[in-house]
Sequence to fold (205 residues):
Amino acid sequence: MSFNKQEFHIPSIDEPVNFSIQERQFLLDLSRMTLINIINSNISNMDLKDIPPRLTDIKACFVTLTKNDILRGCIGNIIPREPLYQSVINNTQHAAIRDWRFLPVQSNELDKIKIEISILTEPKPLNFNSPEDLLNKLQPYKDGVILKIDSHNATFLPQVWKQLPDKVEFLNRLSEKACLDPLVWRDKGTSVSIYYVESFEEIKT
Fold:
């Protein structure tokens, strides 16, 4: 696999970095080539060679696309179900053309799009006995949060804390993302799981 390499930096998160520079670069290059192919309607399978062994592990990830620092698409999976490299391919495609909040990315936007990849740990239930207890246990800038109420659910990556640092507002907006009243997270029957991410992104010059 031969790509033009992009520089990147690692956003500050409070978790150990597990993937090497080469592994992260491989995934960023893979996502970039996938984006180019899907936007140019070249959907044939890429000839992947020399995949680093750890990138074949079953992992969940999100791919986030931004344009001029504004969200342009974000799709991912919370539960691991396929090799990480394949998850990056699929989520890049979906973020580019299947995020219902946005029109599909166009070819004239490619040079302006920046890619961020977030690799998730497996979600774990967070035990709490009251809304106040939940607020006390949440860790801003570290916790990715999954909110589930009846058949409704939604998640925010840890990066969302940058825009919503207040815990109450964070949960209010997450409830709205789940198509519910913003205060419903305070009700009995609410379940919350948390996860952590290792994230890295391109630097556009």
Remarks:
- Residues 8 and 21 are 9 Å apart (CA to CA).
- The beta strands are 8-9, 60-67, 70-76, 113-120, 124-125, 144-149, 152-156, 191-195, 197-202.
